[in-house]
Amino acid sequence: MSSDIRHVTVDCTEPYELATFWSAVIGHPVDPEDQPGDDEVGLTVPAGAGPELLFVRVPDGKPGKNRVHLDLQPHVARDQEVQRLRKLGATLVDDRRRPDGTGWVVLADPEGNEFCVERSAAERHKKVDHRSTP
Q1: How many domains is the chain partitioned into structurally?
Q2: What is the pLDDT of residue 128?
Q3: Burial of 1 (0-12, 13-18, 19+ CB in 10 A)
Q4: Measured over all CA atoms, what is the biggest interatomic distance in the chain, rounded to whole angstroms?
Q5: CB-side exposure of 69: number of CA atoms within 13 Å?
Q6: Which PANTHER family match (predicted)?
């Protein structure tokens, strides 16, 4: 037998506020039963769409670099999504984009949890003629 991943849990100091940020990032609503001030707040995920993100209040701040992080593949161009996420409150941690268009961008959510933004599926499948690029 095996197990399914039910939640990806994020320790944080303000669960509702962080859930609201991530709701805007991935487009899944905050569970309607969860309220500001709750110690646990989840995002509602459609059946079969993967594990839920669950935000749990802890008394201490983030101690260092994440050992596990999310990699996002946007539905729009990577650079466009990075701009949108920064407007939502994400901060730039590291820019790993390469001149040939590959690579990713490391951002942090409002509580400092790192995540990566990769290229969109369209960007990954786009044929690039490097001979015409200086």
Answers
A1: 2
A2: 52
A3: exposed
A4: 56
A5: 18
A6: CONSERVED PROTEIN (PTHR35908:SF1), HYPOTHETICAL FUSION PROTEIN (PTHR35908)
Q: Are residues 41 and 28 part of one domain? A: yes
Q: Residue 130: pLDDT band by 50, 70, 90 thresholds?
A: very low
pLDDT in tens, 62-101: 788 888 899 999 999 999 999 999 999 999 999 999 999 9
71 and 131 fall within a common domain = yes
Identify the domain containing residue 39 by its residue range.
1-59
* Last-in-domain residue among 11, 38, 59: 59
Average the pLDDT over 110-120 and give the result. Answer: 96
Tokens (6 digits) for 50: 């993967």
67 and 10 part of one domain: no
